Amino acid sequence: NYSIMKKILYFFFILFLFSCKEETIEPNINFESPFVIKADPNNPVNQKRFELYEEYGVSVFFSDTVNMIYVNKNVYGDSVFKYEFLDLNWKFNSVSDFKYDFKYFSSQEDRLHALANVEKYLQSSIPALRPLSMLLVDDFSFNGTATDIISYREGNNTVKSLNSYRTLVMSNLHKSYSEDYWPNLVVNLAKPQIKAAVTRESLKAKLLSFQTISQSTHYTQYWATLDLVGVPTTNFTSTIWNQFNPTNPSHWTDPRYVAFRQVFGAYGFIGVSNTIGFWYSPTLEADQNHYIDALLNYNQTVFERNWEASPLVMEKYAVMRDIIVNELNIPLDQLVK
């Protein structure tokens, strides 16, 4: 009857509760993040890694294998581990399949020297552009595009860098460099990051306001077709233009360079095409990159001294500066002296 059935169901319910209490569920995978570096006072290298992580929020590794998780034992009684690697192919909105080859260094002396250099780099770095992690190696290669690797030399030593979305790979940091080396390296590494960042969807309207200052019909045009009236064309050559140094005061008034700025500036350009050739105005992308390079290569006073007679140039400069300083939070005045 109903009363008996009710007692049977109650019995099995009580039995189920007791069986649950006796059983302990233990997951066999540890989900603790390897990117959280912990204090390790007994290991100088790991302790320095911890201090850098605490101060700058950057995890530093000496191998692309960043974690080893015990899974179980196999049929032979051997321990089985799951390995976690730095994924350098993962991008913000895409995934590549490049193959990487790393040569590591392992001595404690070299690693401590490298970490000391990492600290100098991070002290000069821009917080908004710091990576989630850094991989320090003796050398590396990959089957991607060579232009993705940025090399910056001092004396006999060269730091090679490759910046994925989350990890900055750097070679030769266990070598010696001057104190001035690190701020210059920061600027060189920042350029491609900023050039990529300004094309974000969220900045589309701002970037469009930059792109529409120069007329669309003036991009990738033969300079002579646009206007060379009154310009001494005998000195209008790629050789002379390549010698132009915006930070050299003598070049501010040199008639040869005044002529270049007269032609380029009339259309809002500060450089030439890097694909078609010197005698052509730049593409839209090259034009954006010219301004970013200028903003990172010399300060606002120097830029104005060179281009103040060109209203379109100054208008485009102001827009790009606003994007970098206020939208990307890059402190240009602190970065570029």
Shape: elongated
Taking the alpha carbons of the first and last residues, their distance comes to 92 Å
Major β-sheet strand ordering: 1-5-9-8-7
Oligomer: single chain
Main sheet?
Answer: 5 strands, mixed
* Percentage of residues in helical conformation: 40-55%
Description:
With 337 residues, the chain is α/β, with parallel strands linked by helices. Helices cover 43% and strands 15% of the residues. The protein has 13 helices and 9 strands. The protein has helices at 2-22, 44-56, 108-124, 181-197, 204-211, 223-226, 238-242, 249-253, 255-265, 284-297, 300-307, 311-327, 332-335; strands spanning 59-61, 65-73, 79-85, 100-103, 133-137, 139-142, 149-154, 157-163, 167-171. The strands form 3 sheets. The protein has a 5-stranded mixed beta sheet with strand order 1-5-9-8-7, with helices on one face. Helix 3 packs across helix 4 and helix 5 packs antiparallel against helix 12.
